[in-house]
Automatic annotation (TrEMBL):
Source organism of the structure: Rotaria magnacalcarata
Protein name in the entry: Uncharacterized protein
High-level lineage: Eukaryota, Metazoa, Spiralia, Gnathifera, Rotifera
Amino acid sequence: LDERISYNLTPEQLCLTTKLRKVCDTFRQHARKSISRHKKEKDPIVKTLNNLSKYKTIYITRPDKGRAVVILERSDYLMKMEQILNEPKTFKQLDEDPTIQKEDKLQRKLLHLKNICFLTDSEYKFARPVGSQPGNAYELPKTHKDGVPLRPIISARGTFNDKLSKLLANKLKHLRASPTIVIDTFKFVKELQNL
């Protein structure tokens, strides 16, 4: 362990190393200045949206289609959201949160699959849920329709089966490349035209 590292650089190599270090330091300095200047020069639209977000009577979001900014009356948004969540065919209120029970059940199932060598240790560690949260419901406005109805979205990010779904999607990825699967409408139309 008492090894000494020695560099036997020639004077030319030392000179080049010094020049390279100076160039790198200058580059870093200019990059830092540019980044800090850019942060100070905020886009006027972003500034306006930040100012508007301070008003508690409005709700700022994105539409369900396209890239835009939608500003709604918060009371209208909450009323429409409540109507959607109160539809008995779509949603039902639970007396207690089943997340912990579902997480525990999935953990036991994944451990069983690991023990019978169906899952590798790394797959088990990746898919095993810990600290799961219930799904998060939010709505995006359909700006292209009259009355601006809302499209309900249930985000499964952080739920008990979120990582398992990512693992399965990765394992099944090769099946999506099949010539019998149509990825989107444009590809479907193109295939019909080629018939």
